[in-house]
Amino acid sequence: MASSEREGAAGAGQEEEEEERSAAPEDGDGCEDLQPHPSSLLSRRTLDELGQLQDADPDNYKLHSSWAFWFERSPKGGSASDFFANLRQIYVVKTIKAFWCVFNNLSPVDQLRERESYHLMRDTERRPVWEDELNAHGGMWSFRVKKEDTAAVWQEVLLAAIGEQFLHNMDTGDDVCGVSVRIRGFDHNVIQIWNMDSEQHSKSSVIQRVKELIPSIEINEFYQCMCPLLPSLSILLSFPAVIT
């Protein structure tokens, strides 16, 4: 896969609009990329705009991959069914303009509550859970950021992901497949970067790239492979609470 196809995708954002949140649109609103049960985190007007942006003119700058925004609310002491009931796909974006349209119309991360999370996952089928077979051989880098730094770091990591800025930091056969921000009830939150092949993580310089993007912010990261944990659903479901 040629690297020239995947570089330079990050662009300038659109201005943020204030608009009333409403129920998700019915079929026929022009948002062919929505899943059967679209999230109501975006207003009808935003969804209409997205429907027009996805297949617009050539200047719309297609992303190398489709990326899906997800929202998660992780209940304390919840069951497996509770966990999955509180995981929602928001929208799948294919272009830079569509990305900014969603990003600018979601609640900012500093307005999320404790145990709420945003995820951006590569491709339409990949879910931000380790039970997903697409994540079966992967892992993630996790690092804490101060509350006041979270929004800036999250935006940099998002843009690096969709702009394929980690391409040259990965070993052959590996790739970044998602990024997450998890809100915690302490003086920090958690940023996570998912990769496809945990066996290749030691050959990666992803965190070095992150440090270059945000040189003024200290990062102490660790890597976790989920492969040995997959048989244990109870461990998996408690994972969001492990990183504190």
Summarize the structure.
This protein has 244 residues and is of the alpha+beta class.
Question: Any overview of this molecule?
Answer:
The protein is an alpha+beta fold. The protein has one domain: RNA Cap, Translation Initiation Factor Eif4e (2-Layer Sandwich). Helices cover 23% and strands 23% of the residues. A seven-stranded antiparallel beta sheet has the order 2-1-3-5-6-4-7. A hairpin with a 5-residue loop joins strand 5 and strand 6. The protein is globular. The chain starts with 43 loop residues before the first helix and ends with a helix. Mean pLDDT is 78; it is low at 1-5, 7-38 and 230-244.
Entry keywords:
alpha+beta; translation initiation factor activity; 244 residues; 6 helices; initiation factor; RNA Cap, Translation Initiation Factor Eif4e; globular; 7-stranded antiparallel sheet
Relative strand content: 15-25%
Report the span from N to C terminus.
38 Å
> Biggest β-sheet: count, sense, barrel?
7 strands, antiparallel
Number of domains: 1
**CATH class designation:** Alpha Beta
Helix content: 10-25%
| H and E string | HEHEHEEHEEHEH
Shape: globular
The average pLDDT value, as a whole number, equals 78
- Helices and strands: which structural class? alpha+beta
Low-confidence stretches: 1-5, 7-38, 230-244
What is the tally of helical segments?
A: 6
Number of strands: 7
Q: What name does CATH use for the topology?
A: RNA Cap, Translation Initiation Factor Eif4e
Region (Disordered): 1-40
Family: Belongs to the eukaryotic initiation factor 4E family.
Biased composition (Acidic residues): 14-32
Protein name: Eukaryotic translation initiation factor 4E type 3
